[in-house]
Design brief:
six-stranded mixed beta sheet, 1 helix
Amino acid sequence: MKKVIITILAITLLVAPLHFEMIQSDKVHAQEPKNEEETTDQEGYYKKDNYIYKIENGKAVVYGQITPEDVVTVPENINGYEVTKISPGGFITSRVLNIPKTVKSIFGYVSPGNSERYRLEEINVDKDNKNFTSIDGVLYNKDISRMLIYPTLRKAKKYIEPSTVIAGYYDASRDYSYSRYLEDITFSSNNNTHIIGYMYNCPSLKTINIPANIRTTSPGDKEQGSCEACVNLENVNFAKNSKVENISKYTFWGCTRLKKINIPKSVKKISGAAFFNCSSLSKVTLHKGLKTIGDTAFCNCIKLKTIKIPKTVTSIGMNAFERCKKLKTVKLKKGLKTIKRYAFYKCKSLKKITLPKGLKEIGKYAFRKTKIKKVKIPKSVKKLTKKAFNKGCKIKKK
């Protein structure tokens, strides 16, 4: 009995924080089972044939198993009640989950992180299920417009999102985070899909392919790191006619094997920390049309040697190129208005800089701890702090 209670509590804690139903149910009324069963706690949970369940509106809601099985085939009925709702989060310690045709809604799936308990490799759905389907072990809604669950331990190395996919489990985001074996992913080419998936800490990921319909590298409504901590990512392939306008915050943070990036001509903004700590990044190609380079965008890219800033860029953010210790050549063009504080701080290989006409502001410590010994300041500069350059640097207004 104690073992059952502990199991129930563990599963309840796992699924409770992120309750989700693909199909809205009527007001829930807990009921007694038809046959007398052992109640495992005071919340109305029951056990039968190794399953943990509740009864709501005359239907069984399955929360998981008492003793996990390697391959789980959820029954259509438990103790005379049709199974219409299940929590996939209650089966993450099984390798295979088979969903019956009777299931109408799912809830309570939580990304497992690096949990050693997680074993789920594939999810299969009965072909006669009217609400869900599966393709090669990945769970979708019936019309395949939503990618619902990509099992973290799915063995396939390559995955192409179906062109019908426009959203994920909760919203437009599709979650591939912590996928252990995924090496190559191509996102949906559906014109209604404007964001890429969430791939945080996919240790094997090497290549991502971004089609022309994508507008931002953010995996959701709020900017967040879609490829953050993908330490083996080497190739980022944008479509030739790419429409991406924003490289969002933290997109490639900590992608330490990424060596080069060609930012599409459509991009107007590189947001904060987009390439922070990409320690192998040695070549960055920027194009006319880019307007803003955000705070810490390329901070600590220690192998970057040259950067050419297009004339359309008006602002270089705080710490944007800080500690790019091999950066020798920085080409700035007329159109630039602001170089914010610490922008090129500790760029120890930078010996000279030509500041363009029209520049208005140079922030504190912008070129501090570089090797610049003399510099000409355009008359257009209205704000220049004494500590923008090294002490002893010869400053001349032109």
